[in-house]
Each structure stands twice: as C-alpha cells, then as structure tokens.
Specification:
Residues 15-109 form the CoA-binding domain. Pfam families: CoA_binding_2. This is CoA-binding protein. This protein is of the alpha/beta class. The protein has a single domain, classed as Rossmann fold, CATH 3.40.50.720. The chain contains 5 helices and 7 strands; from the N terminus they run αβαββββαβαβα. It has helices spanning 9-18, 34-45, 88-98, 112-120, 131-138; strands spanning 21-25, 49-53, 59-60, 63-66, 78-81, 102-105, 124-126. A 7-stranded mixed β-sheet has the order 3-4-2-1-5-6-7, sandwiched between helices. Helix 4 (112-120) links the parallel strand 6 (102-105) and strand 7 (124-126). Helix 2 (34-45) packs parallel to helix 5 (131-138).
Length: 139
C-alpha cells in the first residue's frame, strides 16, 4: 500500500515555488468564506495564475469561474480544495484526470485514503494546510 508522508517545510516551499497555476476548487463569491480570502490574497501577493472552479457561479469580482477542472483553459499545477470531505473522492478523480501535479487540501480537510490514492497516482498531496498561510510564511 502506498503511504502518504506529511511534507516538511522544505517540501512545501519547493511545491509552492514550482507551482505556476492554481485551480481553487470550491471558490466562493462571499468575501466571508475562506476560499475567497485565500484567492484574494494569492491574486495580489503570489506569482500564481489562479483559476476559480465552482459549478454554481460564473464569475467572482470580474474573474471567470469554471464549472469543473476539465473546463479550465490550462492544466493546473495545483488543485487547492475548499470542499466537504464527502466531495474529495470526486475532486481527486478530476485532479488526476486533468493531469495536475499537486492536490492541496485546505485547513480542516484530512483524508488518509484520498492522500494514499493521490500519491499512488503520482500526485504530491498536502492536507489540512492553508495555502495562503504557508505562502506568506514560507515564501
């Protein structure tokens, strides 16, 4: 069985440095939602090209929102996930099928089976961490 090992700070730094495109899955137009805060911070403070994914929204603050990862105009390097745990198997399938390199599960999301399956499929998997916090702290 493939084992997931929590990335060390050097690994997180490398992942974030090598990442150019990030898909924010579960993006919300509500400024009070964590996904909005992370996206808003990253669009002003990071080097990332950001793509928002939510099947129920067409744009957020003038930025287009795509219904699925498959609908993105690029292959994202990283998929940053703001979804319920019950949605993670589908997000993992989509992440693998579009050819992303990293599955990043935001703070509060932890699923050992998803992590093992992601690693077995060749993904780098980060769980229960906030991309905004780690970007600000490590880069």
């Amino acid at each position: 069985m493939t084992e997931w090992i929590e990335p060390e700070h050097d690994d997180l730094r490398r992942i974030m440095r090598e990442t150019r495109t990030v898909a924010v899955v579960g993006a919300s137009p509500n400024p009070m939602r964590p996904s909005y805060g992370v996206w808003d911070y990253l669009r002003s403070a990071s080097h990332y090209e950001l793509y928002l994914v939510n099947p129920t929204v067409s744009e957020i603050d003038g930025t287009p929102v795509y219904p699925s990862l498959a609908d993105l105009p690029v292959v994202p390097d990283m998929v940053d996930v703001f979804r319920r745990s019950s949605e993670l198997p589908g997000v993992l399938r989509d992440t693998i099928s579009v050819g992303a390199k990293t599955l990043w599960l935001q703070q509060g999301l932890w699923d050992e089976q998803i992590a093992r399956d992601g690693v077995a499929a060749g993904l780098e998997v980060v769980m229960d961490r906030c991309l905004k916090v780690d970007y600000a702290r490590l880069l």
